[in-house]
C-alpha cells in the first residue's frame, strides 16, 4: 500500500452518493506508522457505529492490492445503499486504471457488477439497464434442454408386452425450449432461494428398438410388425408445459456459484403427436393422430446444478395412454439444460 493511499472509503456510514459535508458530519481518521491515513467519513456518529457491520480488514486488503497500480493522489470510494446493502465476505471493490482514469467496480456475490466512473449519470444508466434486464424473460437459458426418454412400466398388460414397444436408449431423444424467469426470493451469504417458472414446449421422441409401427386401432394403439427392415420408427409427442420449481443455489465465500438443487412440478397439454418411419431407401412417412394418448400430463421435476451447468429429471405421474388403450407406462426424461 503506497503512502499516497489517503482515503479509502467516503460516506461509509450513510451510504449516499456525494453527500455534501455539514457541521454535523463525523470522521474517523486512522494514522499508520508509514504515514498512511485511513479516513472514514459519515454524516453522523451513528454511521461510524455501523462499521461493525462491515469487514474493514477485507476492504483494506482488497483495496490495498489494487491501489498499487493507480495514480498518486486521493481515491474516493463511495457506496450507494440502494445498490450495496453491506460489505461482507462476498463483496469485492476493484479499482482499475485505464488511459489515466481510475474506475471502481463493486462486485457482489451474485456476480452483479456496478461501476463508478467520472460520469455519475452514465453509472446510473448502466445499472438501470442491468436491473431492467434481470426482469426480462429468458429463452432456453434455464428451462430448455436436451436429453433422453424412457418408459417406466407400472403394470403388465398381456395385450402390450414390453417387447412390442421397447425403445432405443440413444435414439429416444428429448428436446425442449422454455421462456422462463427465476427471481430470487431470499438470499444469505452462502444460500439463495429462487423460484423458477415459465412456459415450455417439449418434444418427446420414442424410437422403437424393433421394426414396429405405432398405429391407432379401433380399441387402442397397436404396435404392429412392419414386416420389413426399417431404418427408423418412432412416436413423437409435442406438449406445452407450465413448470414451477423452487430452487436453492449455493455460493462460496467469494460469491461464486457452486451449484443448485431444485424440486418442483409441471402440468402440460398435448398439442400434437405423430409417427414417423424411415425406409431403407430413405423414404419417409409421417402420420398424425392422438394414438389414444392422454391430452393432459403432470409430473415432477428435479434440477441439479454443478457450477453453472443444469441437469434435469422429469417424471410423469399420470399414464401416457388412456385406460386400457395402451400399455400402462409413465414417461421419464433426463438430460442437460441448454
TrEMBL record:
Signal sequence span per UniProt?
1-18
The chain's coiled-coil residues are none
What residue spans carry the Basic and acidic residues bias annotation? 108-125
- One Pfam family here: OMP_b-brl_2
Sorted alphabetically, the keyword list is: Signal
Q: Tell me yes or no: is Oxidoreductase among this UniProt entry's keywords.
A: no
| Domain Outer membrane protein beta-barrel: from-to ranges | 136-315
Give the residue ranges for region: Disordered.
Answer: 108-136
User: Which protein, by its recorded name, is this?
Assistant: Outer membrane protein beta-barrel domain-containing protein
Q: Which organism is it from?
A: Larkinella punicea
